[in-house]
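Run log // design_07
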């Protein structure tokens, strides 16, 4: 409040003291009234994670433990989960050089995945592997994981360790056609179940679940199993399992990021035995035309 008395100006400020009464303070001073503070929240430990060891400073007082980023190539936030097992008597689709049943087709600003197989379930699995291979080459996934584990200190590699080191991939593919499985055992995996109202929305939910899991846990699958689709009245359901390696920035090669799955121009084709036999003379430009099933899905990159 400012009041003019003759030639002099007197300014006063008000504050709230501890006793709750309003008083005037001398010019140039202001009492600080702290806002009420909430007590700090206790951080919940992730399920399955071991409790961190308590550290102490030089005076013997306990201090908060800091994750050791130099001790492992895996991110500190990566969940410590085991590798899920595949269901018996159901085909497991594994990524093997020279034996992949998918292709990439050009599309305006996006990419179209075309996969084929003896069943719709197999097409789902091949489409998933095509998605992962587009984001990081599955051909070098195992070797990159080995180099990450065998590094001197397990630290993050600056830049990308694999860029420009595999110019002879085309020649290597011809020599790898006798391989039957990935070179190393998987270290991570993801089992899940999705449901939708029809085949197209089920394909969307299936790929979207794997893509979401990649963006949250960095799990790259090089083997996928899809159980038989349950085709109910208005409800379609499928269970799947994917295993592979944890993507490590600076160790594994980066491809092109897939941001989302789309419904644009999505197609799922099923043929019975008679229709498949009739397609034997189909155009050779479509490798999936002679198979029992094929699908097309556009992903946003």
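design_07 sequence
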């Amino acid at each position: 409040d400012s009041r003019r008395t003759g030639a002099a100006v007197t300014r006063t400020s008000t504050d709230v003291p501890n006793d709750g009464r309003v008083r005037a303070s001398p010019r140039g001073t202001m009492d600080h009234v702290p806002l009420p503070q909430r007590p700090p929240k206790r951080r919940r430990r992730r399920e399955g994670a071991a409790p961190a060891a308590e550290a102490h400073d030089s005076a013997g007082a306990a201090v908060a433990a800091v994750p050791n980023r130099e001790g492992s190539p895996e991110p500190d936030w990566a969940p410590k989960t085991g590798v899920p097992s595949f269901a018996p008597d159901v085909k497991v689709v594994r990524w093997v050089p020279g034996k992949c049943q998918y292709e990439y087709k050009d599309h305006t600003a996006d990419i179209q995945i075309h996969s084929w197989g003896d069943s719709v379930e197999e097409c789902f699995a091949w489409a998933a592997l095509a998605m992962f291979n587009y984001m990081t080459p599955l051909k070098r996934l195992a070797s990159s994981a080995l180099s990450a584990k065998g590094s001197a200190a397990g630290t993050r590699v600056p830049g990308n360790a694999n860029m420009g080191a595999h110019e002879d991939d085309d020649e290597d593919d011809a020599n790898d056609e006798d391989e039957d499985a990935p070179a190393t055992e998987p270290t991570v995996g993801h089992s899940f179940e999705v449901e939708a109202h029809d085949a197209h929305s089920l394909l969307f939910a299936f790929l979207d679940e794997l893509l979401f899991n990649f963006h949250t846990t960095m799990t790259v699958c090089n083997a996928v199993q899809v159980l038989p689709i349950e085709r109910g009245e208005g409800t379609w359901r499928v269970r799947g399992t994917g295993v592979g390696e944890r993507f490590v920035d600076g160790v594994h090669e980066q491809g092109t990021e897939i941001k989302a799955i789309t419904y644009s121009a999505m197609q799922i084709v099923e043929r019975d035995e008679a229709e498949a036999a009739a397609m034997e003379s189909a155009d050779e430009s479509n490798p999936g035309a002679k198979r029992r099933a094929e699908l097309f899905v556009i992903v946003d990159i």
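Confidence is low (pLDDT under 50) at residues 1-16, 62-78, 150-183.
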